[in-house]
Design a protein that fits this description.
single chain; 240 residues; alpha/beta; Metallo-beta-lactamase, Chain A; eight-stranded mixed beta sheet; five-stranded mixed beta sheet; 23% strand
Length: 240
């Protein structure tokens, strides 16, 4: 299944591209109609992303849509390299932070003095759908990690791209400045009603035990509300 250590074909025409350092993973879906990139990663991850695209026989201009799972810099940092060629999509609560350059909430740390203003062309709502021909992605608004967090559900394969909402093992994500533990618990509870076979998160390993991982994530979040010790928080967020 793995083409190399940094690219994995998870399903036919669905690829995981691992991120550099604090960067999120990126996912490529080669659709019959349009090619989609889920999360662009940090700015400095761009050169690695380009190499991965070339390995798959793609160029930057071949990406038709970039979907951001939320507004944190480690998921949106390389958007600016795609925004003149592709449609940038994010939930409307994330889009406001991205387009108004709210660096407190996005935690954006780019040192590029010539950086371009970020664009969001599609301001998404819950249940928005992307029809790619061979695959279809449904937007599920999952506030908690941030107010603009979304997951993307592909119903033919019953897979869920989770961004930073759910991780393998149920490890709890950092609750961002616009986030809420209560919203997080509610979002995971709603996701648990779906039939899901695999979770494709923004960091770490993929999950083939989604039911157990969601149950553990809810328990971890409730423990965090009670301020109990020993709650495992995803360590990569410390670098973000």
């Amino acid at each position: 299944m793995a083409e190399n250590d940094e690219i994995m074909e998870l399903k036919p025409h669905i690829f995981l591209l691992t991120g550099e350092d604090a960067s999120s993973h990126s996912y490529i879906i080669r659709g019959s109609y349009k090619n989609v990139l889920i999360d662009s990663g940090v700015d400095k991850n761009y050169s690695k992303l380009v190499k991965s695209l070339l390995t798959l026989g793609l160029k930057v201009k071949d990406i038709d849509i970039v979907i951001n799972t939320h507004e944190h810099f480690d998921h949106i940092g390389a958007n600016r390299y795609f925004q003149e060629y592709a449609l940038i999509a994010a939930h409307r609560f994330a889009a406001t932070k991205i387009t108004l350059e709210d660096r407190y909430v996005t935690m954006y740390k780019s040192g590029d003095l010539n950086e371009l203003s970020s664009k969001v062309h599609l301001w998404l709502e819950n249940r928005f759908r992307f029809d790619l021909g061979n695959y279809s992605l449904e937007v599920i608004h999952t506030p908690g990690h941030t107010s603009g967090s979304i997951c993307l559900y592909e119903f033919t394969q019953k897979i869920l791209f989770t961004g930073d909402t759910i991780f393998a093992g149920g490890t709890l994500s950092y609750i961002g400045e616009s986030g809420s533990v209560g919203d997080y618990i509610n979002s995971i509870s709603l996701l648990a009603t779906r039939k899901i076979r695999e979770l494709y998160p923004g960091h770490g390993a993929i999950s083939v035990t989604p039911e157990a991982d969601m149950e553990k994530a809810i328990l971890n979040a409730k423990a965090l509300l009670r301020d109990e010790e020993g709650v495992e928080i995803a360590s990569f967020r410390e670098a973000s």
